[in-house]
Amino acid sequence: MIGFAFGLDLLVGEPRTTVHPVAWFGTFVGWLDREWTDSETGQRLVGVMIALLAPLVPAGAAAVPVLAAGEVHAVAAAIVAGLVLFLTTSLRSLLELTEAVVDATADDLETARERIRGLVGRDASTLSPAELRSGAIESTAENLADGLVATLLPFALLAPLSLPAAAAAAAWVKGVNTLDSMLGYPSKPIGTASAGLDDLVMWLPARITAASIAVAAGDPLALRRASEWARVPASPNSGWPMATLACVLSVRLQKPDAYDLNPDAELPTVEDADRAVTLVGLAAAVAVIVAVGLATATTVLAAGLETPAVAGVVP
Questions:
Q1: Which tens digits make up the pLDDT trace of 131-153?
Q2: For residue range 59-115, what is the model confidence (pLDDT) as tens digits?
Q3: Helices vs. strands in the chain: H and E counts, helices first
Q4: I need a labelling partner for 113 at 20 to 30 A (CA). Which of 101, 131, 262, 309 fits?
Q5: For residues 290 and 284, what is the distance between their CA atoms, to the nearest angstrom?
Q6: Where exactly are the structural domains of the chain?
Q7: Residue among 121, 122, 99 at smallest CA distance from 112
């Protein structure tokens, strides 16, 4: 199932927005993003309810078809669960957009500034080519954690035990990520709880992503060097994959007035950014291997627990 979902992403990429369930959930979150009360405290309380309940919508929507398919055949359930994982992960589109931005920085700054809006939220109108490449690399590292590792790991852990639970977990995590990306801003009291929940959910995936980048680069000690800057960004998690990628590339990654990672190095060249795309792709493969190993270990452990211990039986 993991290989099926990963291969499907590489072959076809993300579905169009109009038919993508994650985009449908984003529309729902947009409807929730309103002034429910006149007080900031009231908005925060509403935000707590949104953070607790809204991700259950995609979780339920993912679990039900897997359950229904399981009533037909186990293979059907596996296929539907694989489709859920495919819809909650994204790698090809991320790498292609990053490459497009990087290529445009060489001779078409306006296109680069326009395309990078799909990766970062910062004002790109005055950014230099190197700063645009920095933003693209930062986003690619961070989105490897959000767009692949965060949903892949719980799916791999739960799939040997329950396919509906695995699909629900992947969709729930994607729901949490979507809430944070749309509501988790300091200017939005309604998103405070969603941002906090996302910080908790992403703690482990961000660090596993950083380790995957270090392994992919053949530089495991990069994690130690990255720890010097990993806590500089306001997010408790995004700094880990970004700082690790900065260290293995020996480049400086900078968001103006926010953070400066590996500041003694130079901002990335086109060649540095191209290598970053390659490394993130390899890190994704490392994460998939880890996920397959995790699923295998869970399967073996579950089989061991189900086997009754019979002692003193003479055949």
A1: 999 999 999 999 999 999 999 99
A2: 999 999 999 999 999 999 999 999 999 999 999 999 999 999 999 999 999 999 999
A3: 14, 2
A4: 262
A5: 10
A6: 2-303
A7: 99
